[in-house]
Amino acid sequence: MSALEIDVGTRARDSRHSTVPHYDVELIRSWKDAASLLRGAAARAQMTPFQHRHWLGAWFDGQQWNVQRRPLIAVVRKQGQPRMLAVLPLVIEHRRGLRIAEPAGGADYNAPILLADPADPPVEPHAFWEAIRRALAAAPDGCDIVRFRKMPAAIGSLPNPLVLLPGTTPCALLGHRLEPGDDYEAHRFSRERRYRKELERSWRVFTRHDGASFERITDQSRALEVFATLEAQQSERMRDLGKDYTLDDEASSAFHRDLIRRGIEDGYVVLTALTCGETIVAALLGLRLSSAYLMLRISNAGEAWANCSPGRLIIERTMMALHADGVRSFDFSVGTYEYKRRFGVADVPLRDLAAAVTWRGRALIAAERAARSMTRWLGEIKPRR
Questions:
Q1: CA dist 270 to 286, 292, 327, 331, Å?
Q2: What is the dihedral of CA 4, 9, 14, 17, to 10 degrees?
Q3: Measured between alpha carbons, how far is 161 from 327 in angstroms, rounded to an integer?
Q4: Is the Cβ–Cβ distance between 142 and 70 less than 8 Å?
Q5: Residue ranges of domains in the chain
Q6: What is the pTM of this model?
Q7: What distance in Å separates the CA atoms of residue 299 and residue 281, rounded to the nearest whole number?
Q8: Got the DSSP string for 8-52?
């Protein structure tokens, strides 16, 4: 295993170990090594869809690593015990003389992977963070500061220990989630009547076309074909709107194709489409963990099909199909848009944390706080007349 174990005590040895009250931390340089450890604990792992092995595997494999940018994964255990409690995948980057750690994965939600059993006591946030901080400070390839953005308060059924630390601040972005309960028809009829009728009309208009159907794709080859159309439609839509768009570059495209190859057949990746003969009228790419589903990318064929609102229709039909298959939580992810409101989503607050690991990190945080205070003070000064 490619691992570095750190000792923050007085003993020095080649295979060192980091110990603080309650928790031990092992730092691993290879995601493949960390993933092999996680395989044995998969049944009790709680995470967001973005910390799943398929997502992180595709992301780590697609990165270019060098001495200025490298992976480092923190594995947390109870003191003196072999069983893992948490895994925190990080990427360390050198910027302006500082080593900055951020969550790996380029995700909309960032959080550790928690591996506690339901009967275990909750992770103690301060001891949890102090164990990680000391390990990162003592490691030759550690960091000076960590920045955790877009952190949810809960990870599965467990609280996120990093959100409970002092110094977290509200994230500028919100998540958006819909939990319709067990009776989807009751939920559907609870929505605004006009909006519900619009969706019913859209389905009637769409199904008047010969061969019009809703399709859930589980075959890998077919999924890659549909995804290629999704990419082209999404790119054209963004260009027409004059918006900056980064998902159609080669690296992003390769990542999503790899993700589909890894996860389409076991149900982690969910790809649905409205089709009419050979035409992909709309497509929706999402991720599923047990009874929770998250929407990732969506596209439609444009003005020719605007009379049936294919974007809203693919979301509605996907939710209906997945609800019948046991999904009870539908996550519309970050980004506040009116169509999400009309589906009845609830806001999900997210938190950010910038935490110092070394004195360099403390100096940077102090300087940033001073700059923010000065900006606020200047903004409060009223010009003299």
A1: 5, 12, 12, 13
A2: -40
A3: 26
A4: no
A5: 3-172+349-380, 180-327
A6: 0.89
A7: 8
A8: -SS---SS--EEETTEEEEEES-HHHHHHHHHTTGGG-B--GGGS
**CATH-assigned architecture of domain 180-327:** 3-Layer(aba) Sandwich (3.40)
**Separation of alpha carbons 314 and 310, rounded Å:** 6
Distances (CA, A) of 381 to 283, 368, 371, 384, 385: 51, 20, 16, 9, 12
> At a CB cut-off of 8 Å and minimum separation 6, what does 368 contact?
354
* CA pair distance 138, 367, nearest whole angstrom: 24
Contacts of 111 (CB under 8 A, 6+ apart): 47, 48, 51, 103, 151, 152, 155, 160, 162
Rounded CA separation 41/29 (Å): 19
Amino acid at 385: R
> What's the rounded Cα separation, in Å, for the pair 145 and 367?
13
Hey, CA dihedral for 20, 44, 145, 60, is it positive or negative? positive
Q: Per-residue pLDDT for the chain (385 aa), expressed as one digit of tens each?
A: 433 333 333 222 233 444 445 899 999 999 999 999 999 888 889 999 999 999 999 999 999 999 999 999 999 999 888 999 999 999 999 998 899 999 999 999 999 999 987 678 888 999 999 999 999 999 999 999 999 999 999 999 899 999 999 889 999 999 999 999 999 999 998 988 888 999 999 999 999 999 999 999 999 999 999 999 999 999 888 777 777 766 778 999 999 999 999 999 999 999 999 999 999 999 999 999 999 999 999 999 999 999 999 999 999 999 999 999 999 999 999 988 899 999 999 999 999 999 999 988 788 887 777 776 677 676 666 555 5
* Residues linked to residue 295 through DSSP beta bridges, in sequence order: 286
